Amino acid sequence: MMNAKEFVIDYIGRHNHPVNACLHIVGVPSAFYGMFLFVTGKFAWGAALIVLGYFLQYLGHKAQGNEVGEVTLIKHIWKKVCTPRN
User: How far apart are CA 86 and CA 73, in angstroms?
Assistant: First the structure.
């Protein structure tokens, strides 16, 4: 498991392209606000902002040439679950 320092260093490295950084500045708050709206009953606006926020983050990672963090996390978990233990 990564400690906080390793996480920050990894995060900065995965988001240092200017286009990626800018799209994340808009995309992350949009997705979080969308989640808030969704759980408070404004389903259509919430879902739209979640999709928009994640789409902007996806475009940012495409510009930088790396994967979205959730995809990386899912691959890491899948590898741990599917790797035989001796």
Answer: 23
What global pTM score does this model have?
0.80
| Segment 21-69, tens digit of pLDDT | 999 999 999 999 999 999 999 999 999 999 999 999 999 999 999 988 8
Q: Residue 47 to residues 39, 43, 58, 85: CA-CA distances in angstroms?
A: 10, 6, 16, 40
Instruction: Say how far apart CA 83 and CA 75 lie, in whole Å.
Output: 12
Contact residues for 23 (Cβ-Cβ < 8 A; gap 6+): 56, 57, 59, 60, 63
